[in-house]
Amino acid sequence: MLLERWGYAGMAVEDVARAAGVTKKTLYHHFGSKNALVIALIHLRLDEHGAAVRGILASAPSAREGLEALTLWFAARPPAHDVLRDTARFLPGEDQVVLNQAFLRHVIAPLEEALRRGVEEGEFEPHDTTFAAWMLLGMLSTLPALLVLGHLPSLPGSLMTLLMRGLEQPKTPP
């Protein structure tokens, strides 16, 4: 994707039109501006990302297993979402608000739901699930970069263990 390769400032509408096999005029007809095109791209990525996150979490038998599977998924992803996040900073404030709301809905909300489920089912100690979701996302977002730098493949598991030891209910002996 051109935006991920060149960033907002380096991406020219002409290049996008050429890559899409349409004229610049057609691109502007459908999107109106470079900002509108970028907003549509970010929304598309958030929709895709949110669907994947919800699917991973929903398919797991427990909240912990869902979060572990999500950690492995994040570790395997290229860090392109960083470019999209950084690109949003170039957009006008009202567009940033809309994108932030979409991010909360597609990314943070599913994490909060999984954490709440874990609390309700006794897997995790009660915590502020919003704070825990942001903390988890912060740790997850570093995984691809750390793995590229040659950190051990066990890093995702280590990250989950670190996070979960702070959230798990203490096990009582039978």
TrEMBL record:
Entry's transmembrane regions: none
Location of the DNA-binding region in this protein: 12-31
Hydrolase in keyword set: no
Domain HTH tetR-type residues, every copy: 1-49
Keywords for the protein's UniProt record, in alphabetical order: DNA-binding, Plasmid, Transcription, Transcription regulation
Cross-referenced SUPFAM superfamilies: Homeodomain-like (SSF46689), Tetracyclin repressor-like, C-terminal domain (SSF48498)
Transcription regulation keyword on record: yes
InterPro entries reported for this sequence: Homeodomain-like_sf, HTH-type_TetR-like_transc_reg, HTH_TetR, KstR2_TetR_C, Tet_transcr_reg_TetR-rel_C_sf
Protein name (record): HTH tetR-type domain-containing protein
